[in-house]
Amino acid sequence: MAAITSRSNALDLGRRRILIFGGSFDPIHLGHIKLLKRAISVVRPEKSLVIPSADQPAHKTPCLFPVSIRTACIQISLAKVPNWAILDYETIREAPAYTWETLRFLKQKFQDAQFYLVVGSDNVHAIRKWKNARDLLGDKKLTVVAAQRPGWPLSTTLKPAGGLIKLDGRYPDISSTEIRCMLTSNDASERRQAWSRLSRAARLPLRGEEGLVIIAQAYIKRHLPQSRYAHSLSVAQLAADLAQRWHGNERGARLAGLLHDSSRTQENFQNFNDAMSHAQRSAGIARTIIGVKDPAILEAIRCHTLGLPGMPLLAKILFVADFASPDRTFPEADQIRLLARRDLNAALCAVAAHKLHYLLRQNRFIHPKALAYWNSLVGKP
Ligand SMILES: [Fe+2]
Ligand SMILES: [Fe+2]
Asked: What is the reported pTM?
């Protein structure tokens, strides 16, 4: 049973009750859902408001998933929960919102209501340090609904003027931080664990192309050397620009650009085989770790170094973008980048020729696939 304090207004049945549940929900997981359902069953609110926080890119720990994905996951995960709504007050503001500001807004909007603020026991201990905590805790219209989090005992001397309700159970016993980390792990069992902690429905937005772009970027940020990560971002941006220019799949091109070198965990190749196989291995990471299923994206990654006769638009774009991305320091990159916007096939020829010239000048082995691609571009005599 939920422990309800003896304060008479802890559960004020005489007023309209509104439950407020805020957080980054980055992403929402089964622990959040369980907690919300429990709080609803105890408070029995007329309405529950789920309030995602803003992205806050300048924040020390900015959200990984943008508000569009976090909101989609919330909506789809809570589809069976009655009488709730997302409040976008914090996400549409330009500046981050403090809880007291959100409460002030709600009090203006619902003047007859008693608000029940759901917080974890970690926040129960921190609430005194929140901005304008004195006003919050002195507000009779605000009841704190506290849920125990592992490692944070619920015993507290906190005495909000609007009362304190302690929920039984431990909520959530998992964290979004852990899930975000496990989603980009090379360990398959950790990744499985991460997915299993999301509602079945919430997995859909994360597995869509927009979600995969976010996970892919987090993966390469975690596993690649800084300069390779920067190169991959640069290739991804150019690939997306070229896809837009040539009416291709912009998001797919960005994803291919992000992941094309995802197996290059060391800046320099260790040997020839390593150099030749990195495109295949990167496509393997894209498929098995990130979950890319689109064969055009996987093929583009596989062909990005040697090319492939007759390769489709996305692969052409990546082949050019990898060579001519803005982070490249050789002068041909700038020229080919401009050329690619005017004539993509001419840019492909120029890239293939530059690669062959380079190998010839260095007296290096030319892979038969690179020759085959060149021959396919210039045609039979
Ligand atoms: Fe590469
Ligand atoms: Fe590359």
From this structure: 0.88
